[in-house]
Design goal:
312 residues; mainly alpha; 10 helices; 1% strand; transmembrane; membrane; CLN6; CLN6 protein
């Protein structure tokens, strides 16, 4: 029988061949990870923050300020096209962020999270599109579905159940499938942002300047998405990981500091927002319970709504 020929040796400096003996870049976490230098990802963090502000926060604003003649109420609005772009660009940037992690991360968990994220954001796209278009018909976000004047008088009454189902897909199911994997991916990336070199635990000036708009967006995300519990648990997990790694002599690198400080500043902004609206009786009625965090759009329709009336 023919003798087995050994595998040819890899050239010095060349990447290892693919195969079961050489797991992929984001395969199972190795028992021992070598800590590498990870410079601040200014390009990714800048694009990430910019598209969050333009495509997420800006989509309802674009829907309101652009003339109705351009986007009739029975057609997708400008905000819907913003949302479509967000659903494509955001998972791409998250994947690029994971790729730049100096630590080997669990590939399967990342893939499942990205798939769930896209599905949840797409569900939210439909529900949010209809709910925001209802503003032009007099829908008031500071009231529940059944308390809204334009919904309360619908006949037959089973139509109200349909609108409540739409609200459930928008505010509950869509948000859960969107935000849970979103914060899970950020936390997975955060686990690789530690270094034994203290000199790497400092942020460049660009990171400090970018931290303001990044923190403000997280404030909007938590308040409008009503995901404070998810946010605070993610923050506590990050804090526990920082304390655990500190015992090993590891500190956060510039990317980890940027993400961690952004969460802290956003938490302070949320606290200020709650204190400011603490005595608002109408918003208190819509958001009962121990956790009282009003949505910015509910505040807008209650106190600042100057929308032009839709043409009959």
């Amino acid at each position: 029988s023919a003798r087995r020929r050994p595998f040819p040796a890899a050239a010095p400096g060349s990447p290892p061949p693919a195969g079961p003996l050489y797991p992929g870049r984001h395969g199972a976490v190795k028992a021992e990870d070598t800590f590498k230098t990870s410079p601040f990802h200014l390009d990714l963090w800048f694009y990430f923050t910019l598209q969050n502000w333009v495509l997420d926060f800006g989509r309802p604003i674009a829907m309101i300020i652009l003339p109705l003649e351009w986007f009739p109420l029975n057609k997708p609005s400008a905000g819907d096209y913003f949302h479509m772009a967000y659903n494509v660009i955001t998972p791409f940037l998250l994947l690029k962020l994971i790729e730049r992690s100096p630590k080997t991360l669990p590939r399967s968990m990342v893939y499942v999270s990205i798939i769930t994220f896209v599905m949840g954001a797409s569900i939210h796209l439909v529900g949010d599109s209809v709910n925001h278009r209802l503003i032009f018909s007099g829908y008031q976000h500071h009231l529940s579905v059944r308390e809204n004047p334009i919904i309360r008088n619908l006949k037959p009454e089973t139509l109200i159940d349909s609108f409540e189902l739409l609200y459930y897909y928008d505010e509950y199911l869509g948000h859960s499938m969107w935000y849970i994997p979103f914060f899970l991916i950020l936390f997975i990336y955060f686990t690789g942002c530690f270094t034994p070199v203290v000199e790497q635990s400092r942020m460049p000036v660009a990171a400090v300047l970018l931290m303001g708009p990044s923190s403000l967006y997280y404030w909007y995300l938590v308040t409008e998405g009503q995901i404070f519990i998810l946010y605070i648990f993610t923050f506590f997990a990050m804090m526990a990981l920082v304390m655990h790694q500190k015992r090993k002599g590891l500190v956060l690198d510039s990317n980890g500091l940027f993400l961690f400080y952004s969460f802290i500043i956003a938490l302070l902004l949320i606290a200020g927002w709650v204190v400011w609206l603490w005595n608002d009786k109408i918003l208190r009625k819509k958001y009962p319970g121990v956790i009282y965090i009003p949505e910015p759009w509910a505040f807008y329709t209650l106190h600042m709504n100057t929308l032009h009336a839709a043409k009959e």
